[in-house]
Amino acid sequence: MKSWSRPEVPRIAGTGILPRLYDTSTRKLVVPSTTGTASLYVCGITPYDATHLGHAATYLAFDTLLRVWIDAGLDVTYVQNTTDVDDPLLERAAATGVDWRELAASQTDLFRGDMEALSVIPPDHYVPVTAVIPEVAAAVNIMLADKLAYEVEADDSVDSQPDLYFDSAAAADTTPWHLGLESNLDRDEMLALFGERGGDPDRPGKRDPLDPLLWRAARDGEPVWDTVLGPGRPGWHVECSVIAVNRLGSQITVQGGGSDLLFPHHEFSAAHASALTGEPFAQVYSHAGMIAYQGEKMSKSLGNLVLVSRLVEDGVDPRVIRLALLAHHYRSDWEWTDEALESAGTRLDSWLSWAASPAGRDDGLVSKLREALADDLDTPATLRQVDAAVLHGGPASGEALDAIHALLGIDLSA
Ligand code: 5CA
Ligand code: ZN
């Protein structure tokens, strides 16, 4: 599927640094091993109410990683999905009387426009789930043959075929994955989150309450695809595993998304990918913090949203939105306030007047920016380095302006 247009990313003089990244699974900072190439899978939106600042913050975190990797000379392949068929999307479409396909298409368009406005580098493969249903069915079929999937009789209709579930215990025995590998949660925490985040711990017939759905057989009134598994549609986690594995191969460099996806979504995406490849899913499991608003996590279901498109419509410079989000470390949870926008605006103004008359040569700012970002993408420290140069350093240099543009996505020439 069409993604969005690529922003200009200038080349910076000298050599970039491969960044240390926090890995949720080992709880350590690691520099993933790369031999000139890296692969990145980031979970995309469920297109029914995009794009709020929480989404934007998460995609900016991985945009920063991409920019740092590109500066370090890596050839990166980046894949992102859209979950363009899913229960919450179908519910919203039904509630508003809009066809679910139209809702997904219009919200994905809005998202593309927002990402473009924010100068976010697009993925190389932008993959809607509805385009890969046969791929996912084929993968689930392999899991069935490998005895990593099992049938659970449908409870709501005598006509319905059985649904298919992932056998977590069998996978722990025969693959490099085990329950908790990625999330490090204890079983009670998992059970609570599983119920809250789309799982069905109480469904009769499951071997383990935590086993996730792989395939949902056709039900009346639901979208359905004819596949090797019969008519139905995939479970959520396996979609991301299959999209990632079939485009990036086994053991990708980084799996990314917001921390609300850690369990069950990322845990089981990793499980399914390992079931398919026999390898660990990723070298680094990376999670961005949650943005709150008015005291709670900004979320479509609560409706406490600040939309990027609304801010831009109101005349806010997208660079100000970028700076407001980059002022916080990507792993921290924080609350959005109007004040965040004001101080980012003041910051951009001071940077712009400094950049208006570049002269002289880089006096070390470029390497300070690279070092701060190599330290688990420390954007707040990076912004402070620019502030210090603006306040106390000499005039801006062309090299520094290129570095700010390439690494932070802030073009100060306009
Ligand atoms: N389509 C699935 C992933 S396969 C999904 O979670 N979609 S989403 O639209 O709900 O979220 C898209 C991305 O934004 C996810 O990575 C999610 O973790 C992140 N996200 C959602 N809300 C917030 C928030 N308040 N703060 C930071 N990131 C958020
Ligand atoms: Zn996902």
Characterization of the model:
The protein has helices spanning about 55-70, 85-95, 100-115, 135-145, 170-175, 185-195, 235-250, 260-275, 310-315, 320-325, 340-355, 365-375, 380-390, 400-410, and strands at about 20-25, 30, 35-40, 75-80, 125-130, 150, 165, 215, 225, 230-235, 250-260, 280-290, 290-295, 295, 335. The strands form 4 sheets. A 5-stranded parallel β-sheet has the order 5-4-3-11-12, sandwiched between helices. With about 425 residues, the protein is an alpha/beta fold. The chain has a domain at about 20-290: HUPs (Rossmann fold, 3-Layer(aba) Sandwich), CATH 3.40.50. Strand 13 (about 290-295) and strand 14 form a beta hairpin. The radius of gyration is 22 Å and the shape is globular. The protein is about 40% helix and about 15% strand. The model has no long low-confidence stretch (mean pLDDT about 95). It contains 14 helices and 15 strands. The longest helix is centred in the N-terminal third of the chain and has 19 residues, at about 55-70. Helix 4 (about 135-145) packs across helix 7, helix 10 (about 320-325) crosses helix 11 and helix 12 (about 365-375) packs parallel to helix 14. Bound molecules: 5'-O-(N-(L-cysteinyl)-sulfamoyl)adenosine (5CA) and zinc ion. 5'-O-(N-(L-cysteinyl)-sulfamoyl)adenosine binds near residues 46, 54, 57, 81 and 298. Zinc ion binds near residues 43, 240 and 265.
